[in-house]
Design a protein that fits this description.
heterotrimer; A alpha/beta; B alpha+beta; C mainly alpha; A: alpha/beta; 11-stranded mixed β-sheet; two-stranded antiparallel ribbon; 13 strands; globular; C: mainly alpha; two-stranded parallel ribbon
């Protein structure tokens, strides 16, 4: 009996602690209005924007508002979630109107490749389904999609799940080259049709642990993507999985684009044939670099914040990460003398600067509040939250978000003192790198597919071969075998692979993945053998 | 055939003394019974002989060999457990063969001896059965076969029949005796069932509070109990309290509440003084009922409640003192209705005078 | 109980399982059988067996399953044997602490492990301080021997299941069984191998089956070691793939089938051979005191295992109190701030309340379902009860993500179950999800209780005029209440730690359970890992006290729950 009392008492104490430490202010209580946002943003961003927007809303309308954040996970879970929710919602609407839910309807209503004739009377089933969806007010009960890569937003907009919020015409003072340009170095910062708008900027770069690099005998400070392929970094590079994260895929694309860029400028590429050759060569070099970086991989994570955390803890020496993750983590572990073992940099000319958008979802139930939120995020007040230090006028109250606002006004000298990263100017960074949509854009998915089969699926064999090569000091025959990428050269990727992926036939895609996978496994094994023989 | 000698054995469990300086000797080839109420130490003594317990003091000798500190598996005893302890994951034959396998005997011989042993307990056709498929009596036979097949120096039986029904018990106890004699085994048999002991024991020891209360043949124990404990434990008896009036060679006269009795003194080493308080033990079947007062050792009373069991009637005999139990063989209870005044008489050698 | 009532219970539980287990899984898994034209195909399944990467993943999963089980046995068997036979210093506490490894809160376990075994972790720092390692040549414990690491972590995480089973089995052996062997000249290891081991085999195998299924489908540990070529991880990553890929579902089908086959095999091989002990023990069994040296050795052994198994927990606890911790044996500085932030956070209190609510309700559902199913299994001869038995064990083998997506799909507007849509209120669907996933423990606990309780006790009540349902309430349930309590508390604990369902189904902040709150706080850069650890420590304290309490109160009865 005494024992039971002790156990119950202990439990009571444990349960009581959070009640005692309960926060005074609570954003989860009921309010006059509600706004539903689906987002991959982290708690810090959500906290600051909730706090600031509820105040803003109160001032504007005199009413209270509660933000209902929906958090099914990262960008890929959100994409999946939106797809299935709209699928069900439209199916419901379609069937309610008494029409047959056929395979053709379900595969075309959210398919952007279905083209619509001018005259609705000429529509076939697929086209009428598509037209009905685009004209509909089908709702999934969520107002806004906030945060992620432009890639995700472009896909959602294409599918018809995002709609024009009308802000571009309403605020011409913001949507121009002095504040938010439409295109910067080849990348869109907002959708001209207003279905999504950039809110802040992100670039990809490298974070590294100075202790680890020193221990591994790397004395030169890394500066470029190619530094990740240093053989001394075997099993020490933390990477993000390009098949899970759109932004990671984007980074790999940039590595390739940088190589193509170099080839193009080297050759001058005046003729079409020369251009073609430069493209093919640049692709090959870029892929080979990715191959060597992957051979150094410790892992391909699907949780982006993990990379800077692991690097700062010495669980990996170096890694690829989003700029603000790297900066934020470096700040957190700063010692009293101002130094930090974690450093972040964006490789010069190695990364585009991308917008991190927000968009209004089809059938938004609280569209008025949603539009106010959009306005707020793009207003100077909203923009200040992204990079101002905690406690500065108009800045965040609890978390320094260390992200880069999209509006150019924020980079004016008057704000320098308030900014967490006064030295960083993404618009200057962006000039060093120009994104050429035509080079790799059409084969973006094929590219991630190729990276997957040659680096991720076959990673064990790849690493074995790489270690054997390192041990044998890169004998030429083995190295040539290792880096032979003729099976996935530019032309093949652009034709065979892209076509297979576009066919929509899963079996075909998987068979291709298997064929290529087998090919690379064999190739890596042969390279291992050759390296062991010292050839 | 070996003898077993227990010398001055002490076994404690915490503060509880289970065996208190206990000594006894078991003769070669003897079927020896350990008998007593629960908690008297009989199982503890058996387990000391088997080697599962090591005593704090004293010795266990097999013939002249001191086995006190020999581990159980080196004593070469065969034990039949109360729960039989047959391994449910093996067949009957496997169970029996187990002990032989430990002795590094050729497979052919093992098979032969298992068969022989099962045959001796009439279980040969069950050799390939699983234990769970056997009845209680069959399990008991297998347990016996398993203990016997190794041709042990000593057979140890720990209440082997307590889980069987009455009829099977009768059958099995003669079976056990037959087997013991056939194999010429020295055997120790623990039981709390006096009928078992009286019927087949060569000799028996009554244990009480970790000591030997009395050792003897069944007849000696039954007819000449040396103490109230033994008299009470074995069979039924009537106790009468009284004082010694006079003493003869090995008899004495005692005055009780219901009259004067002449009885025998069972213990040669003990003679009470005149005037000493003693207890008389008189078996119910020793009384004879008469219409008239015939001779000495007679009391008068009347018939109380009667239980008629066919071959015997159990009467309650009411007199001045506490009621007596009287058994009559070949009775006609209708001739002795309750309330009928009668005289009960007992022979002198059936009156046992015991210390109080 | 009347046949009509039994059939009613059978049908009711059958419907519940069909609706909330079979249907959502089928919903998710149909992708494995439909080609792009929507026609039935087994091409995907066939492809799994043709693709060397998937085959290797499956082989690795089997390898981890078997080796982890063997290592768990190697750890649990000696511990259980010692606990059964000997008394030693601190035995009560240590045997209770043995169970703690089971309640490692998700996500933060990896932080703890890395903090200790990472290149800049405690262990290396300790070795450097001792002069046994060169600070310029650190050992990469987590990267060097990943397979070995996974097996060891699995075993250290899962051995309590086997330990509890073996202790229960040993306690059931009549000591005379072993004495008989000794009497016939068989001692020591031979006796153990020929008598004791076969007698505890049913218990060993029952626990081993659960451990195998668990290790076979384990996701967190391989992820911790970044080991990707194993089926569970392939499924996990496949499901998260951009664009619907049918292969993860084909893999789930293969894994599920493998599990079912293994379970069926274990039932056929060992199901019938459970040896009922015939009679009560004749001699005093129970543990006995040993000499001080032996006692100290036993204590040391238990301490060592507990220490090793709790390394991740220790790491998490230390992290939660540390300012920064990098390349040193212990943290650089200590602070309580993380607890203040974690427990004072907006998300925390509601999430704790939610978790208590979800897990509590789920436990009640489990208790009711568990009794009903156990009753049908043990007390009736209905045809198909074995099916129910097997079905009740299957949730162990289904990846949480698969069920979660199934629930999501079946509650869409317009579907029959749309009234449970988690975006409106996840309470119902989460309670159902939690209860389905933890039901196996409850069913096992109730079945064990009913098997140990003689049916004559119920018959006696009915003979005295008590109607069947009242008999259940008045006689049966009180008799098995200890089992129900143990099973219920375990179901509750594991429900509190549920990850997959929580992450997918709880979408609104005010509906978050504690695991999702930990996950959210973990995502915070910088202090995230410290805050998550602090919240993890709270969860560990809560569940640890619950578990130790249960084991102290129930002792050996706990073992019956982890039997397959």
């Amino acid at each position: 009996m005494r024992r039971a009392i002790i156990v119950i008492l202990a439990l009571a104490v444990i349960i009581a602690v959070p009640f005692i430490l309960k926060p005074k202010q609570n954003f989860l209580t009921k309010a006059d209005d509600t706004l539903v946002i689906i987002s991959p943003h982290n708690e810090a961003i959500r906290y600051e924007f909730t706090r600031a927007f509820t105040e803003y809303y109160k001032n504007k309308t005199g009413r209270t508002i509660r933000i209902d954040w929906r958090l099914p996970g990262g960008a890929s879970e959100i994409a999946r979630y939106l797809t299935s929710e709209y699928y069900a919602a439209f199916q419901n609407a379609w069937q309610t109107s008494g029409r047959q839910w056929t395979f053709e309807v379900q595969s075309s209503f959210d398919n952007s490749s279905v083209t619509l004739p001018k005259d609705a009377a000429l529509d076939n089933t697929a086209q009428s389904a598509r037209r009905a969806f685009l004209a509909s007010d089908v709702s999934i009960g969520i107002d806004l999609f906030f945060g992620g890569g432009t890639y995700d937003f472009i896909q959602q907009a294409k599918a018809g799940r995002l709609v024009d919020c009308g802000l571009i015409s309403k605020l011409p003072s913001i949507f121009n080259d002095n504040s938010i340009p439409q295109m910067v170095s080849g990348g869109a910062f907002y959708d001209p049709q207003g279905r999504w708008l950039g809110t802040c900027l992100a670039s990809f770069g490298i974070c590294y642990n100075t202790d680890s690099l020193k221990r591994l005998g790397i004395d030169t400070i890394p500066a470029a993507w190619s530094d990740l392929a240093n053989p001394r970094l075997a099993h020490q590079v933390a990477l993000a999985d390009p098949t899970k994260s759109g932004s990671a895929a984007k980074t790999f694309e940039m590595i390739i684009q940088q190589q193509i860029q170099e080839q193009v400028s080297k050759s001058g590429a005046s003729t079409d044939a020369a251009k073609k050759e430069s493209l093919a060569k640049g692709w090959l070099l870029g892929m080979q670099l990715i191959q060597r970086i992957s051979a150094n991989a410790r892992y391909f994570t699907d949780g982006a914040p993990r990379v800077p955390m692991d690097v700062s803890q010495g669980d990996a020496a170096i890694g690829m990460c989003i700029d603000f993750y790297g900066r934020f983590q470096s700040e957190t572990i700063k010692l009293s003398d101002g130094t930090s073992r974690l450093h972040y940099f964006t490789p010069a000319g190695g990364s585009s600067v991308d917008a991190d958008p927000i968009g209004l979802l089809r059938g938004a139930p609280n569209s008025e509040a949603a539009k106010l939120f959009l306005e707020f995020v793009l207003s100077l007040e909203g923009q200040k939250l992204w990079n101002f230090k905690v406690g500065t006028p108009g800045g965040p109250t609890h978390y320094a978000l260390r992200r880069l606002p999209i509006r150019k006004e924020l980079y004016l000298p008057e704000f320098t003192q308030y900014r967490s990263d006064p030295d960083v100017d993404p618009y200057a960074e962006a000039k060093l790198f120009t994104y050429h949509e035509g080079w790799t854009g059409p084969i973006f998915r094929a590219m991630t597919f190729v990276i997957r089969v040659m680096c991720l699926d076959t990673n064990d064999e790849l690493q074995n071969a790489w270690h054997a090569l390192i041990a044998a000091n890169f004998p030429p025959l083995a190295m040539a075998r290792f880096s032979d990428l003729s099976a996935v050269d530019y032309a093949t990727t652009f034709t065979t692979i892209r076509d297979a992926l576009r066919s929509g036939d899963r079996i075909k895609e998987i068979q291709l993945a298997k064929t290529l996978g087998d090919h690379f496994r064999t190739q890596y094994r042969e390279a291992t053998e050759l390296a062991k023989e010292g050839k | 055939m070996i003898s077993i000698t227990i010398e001055n054995l002490v076994k404690k469990f915490g503060d509880n003394i289970a065996l208190n300086h206990l000594s006894l000797k078991i003769l070669p080839g003897e079927l020896f019974f350990l008998l007593g109420p629960s908690g008297c130490g009989k199982t503890t003594l058996l387990r000391n002989v088997a080697g599962f317990y090591t005593p704090e003091e004293g010795k266990v000798l097999f013939d002249q060999e001191d086995v006190t500190h020999l581990p159980p598996h080196q004593r070469h005893t065969g034990m039949v457990f109360q729960s039989y302890a047959l391994w449910p994951h093996m067949t009957v034959a496997k169970n029996v063969a187990f002990g032989l396998e430990q002795l590094k005997i050729s497979n052919a011989e093992i098979t032969a001896r298992v068969h022989e042993s099962l045959a001796s307990v009439r279980m040969e056709e069950y050799a390939s059965r699983k234990i769970a498929q056997l009845s209680g009596g069959q399990q008991q036979r297998v347990a016996l076969a398993r203990a016997l097949v190794i041709r042990p120096r000593v057979l140890l039986l720990d209440e082997p029949l307590s889980n069987l029904d009455a009829k099977l018990r009768l059958e099995m106890r003669t079976e056990i005796r037959r087997v013991c004699k056939e194999f010429k085994l020295t055997a120790i048999y623990v039981t709390h069932d006096q009928k078992e002991a009286l019927s087949i024991a060569d000799r028996m020891a009554i244990l009480h509070q970790g000591r030997v209360a009395q050792i003897g043949t069944p007849e000696e124990i039954y007819r000449n109990p040396h103490s109230c404990v033994v008299a009470d434990f074995i069979g039924e008896t009537n106790f009468l309290k009284g004082k010694v009036l006079s003493l003869n060679a090995n008899t004495a006269e005692v005055e009780t509440d219901c009259g004067r009795f002449e009885g025998i003194l069972p213990e040669p080493e003990w003679r009470p003084d005149a005037g000493e308080s003693v207890t008389l033990s008189i078996r119910p079947e020793a009384w004879r009922l008469h219409e008239e007062n015939t001779s000495i050792n007679t009391i008068q009373g009347e018939i109380g409640e009667t239980i008629y069991l066919g071959e015997v009637a159990q009467y309650q005999f009411l007199h001045k003192g506490s009621p007596l139990k009287i058994f009559e063989l070949n009775p006609r209870p209708s001739e002795r209705p309750p309330g009928r005044k009668l005289f009960a008489q007992v022979d002198r050698q059936d009156v046992v005078i015991l210390r109080q | 109980m009347s046949r009509a009532f039994s059939i009613f219970v059978f049908i009711l539980t059958g419907i519940f399982f069909a609706c909330f287990f079979a249907y959502p899984i089928a919903n998710t898994l149909q992708g494995a059988f439909l080609d792009s034209q929507g026609h039935f195909t087994i091409a995907f399944i066939a492809e799994v067996f043709r693709n060397p990467i998937y085959l290797e993943g499956l082989a690795n999963a089997l390898f981890f399953g078997v080796t982890s089980t063997l290592l768990s046995i190697a750890i649990a068997l000696p511990l259980a044997f010692i606990a059964d036979r000997y008394l030693f210093t601190g035995k009560k506490l240590l045997t209770a602490l043995l169970l703690i490894p089971m309640i490692l809160p998700p996500f933060v376990g990896a932080i703890g492990v890395k903090q200790i075994l990472g290149e800049q972790g405690s262990l290396n720092a300790l070795l450097i301080t001792l002069g046994w390692m060169n600070s310029q040549h650190l050992t990469d414990w987590l990267g060097a021997n990943r397979s070995l690491g996974i097996i060891i972590m699995n075993a250290l995480h899962l051995y309590p299941i086997l330990y509890l089973n073996i202790v229960a089995a040993l306690a059931n052996i009549d000591p005379a069984m072993e004495e008989a062997a000794e009497n016939l000249g068989c001692t020591g290891l031979r006796k153990f191998y020929r008598i004791t081991l076969p007698l505890i085999m049913p218990g060993l195998f029952a626990g081993g089956t659960i451990v195998f299924i668990w290790a076979f489908t384990e996701l967190g540990v391989p992820l911790m070691f970044d080991f990707t070529r194993v089926t569970s991880v392939q499924i996990f990553y496949g499901i998260k793939d951009i664009g619907a890929n049918p292969f993860p579902y084909a893999l789930v089908v293969v894994m599920l089938t493998t599990t079912v086959l293994f379970y069926a095999l274990s039932k056929v091989t060992f199901g019938r051979s459970s040896h009922a002990m015939m009679a009560k023990a004749t001699s005093q069994g129970g543990p006995r005191a040993i000499n001080p040296l032996g006692s100290a050795l036993c204590t040391l052994l238990f301490c060592a295992v507990v220490f090793l198994a709790m390394l991740p927990h220790l790491g998490v606890i230390l992290v939660s109190f540390s300012k920064d911790w990098y390349a040193t044996i212990l943290p650089h500085g200590w602070t309580f701030d993380h607890f203040k932030v974690a427990l004072g956070h907006n998300l925390t209190l509601p999430s704790i309340q939610n978790s208590l609510k979800y897990a509590g309700l789920a436990t009640i559902v489990d208790v009711i379902l568990g009794i009903a199913i156990a009753y049908v299994i043990t007390r009736t001869r209905l045809i198909g009860r074995e099916l129910l038995d097997a079905m009740a064990m299957l949730p162990l083998a289904v990846p949480g993500l698969v069920l979660a997506f199934g629930y999501l799909a079946m509650t869409q507007p317009g579907k029959f179950f749309s009234f449970m849509n988690p975006t409106i209120d996840p309470l119902m669907i989460l309670v159902i999800a939690y209860s389905i996933r933890r039901l196996p423990y409850m069913v096992r606990a109730a079945v064990a209780g009913l098997q140990q309780t003689s049916v004559t006790l119920e018959e006696a009540a009915q003979n005295l005029g008590c109607p069947p349902f009242k008999t259940l309430r008045k006689i049966t349930i009180p008799l098995i209440s200890a089992n129900l309590l143990a099973g219920g508390l375990l179901a509750f604990s594991f429900a509190m730690l549920e990850v997959s369902d929580s992450l997918i189904l709880a979408q609104k902040q005010q509906d978050f359970p504690i695991t999702k709150a930990i996950f959210e706080l973990y995502q915070l850069l910088g202090e995230g890992r410290y805050i998550a650890c602090a919240l993890g420590v709270w969860a560990m304290a809560f569940l640890g006290v619950t578990m130790i309490g249960v084991s102290l109160l129930l002792g050996k009865k706990l073992g019956a729950i982890f039997r397959a």
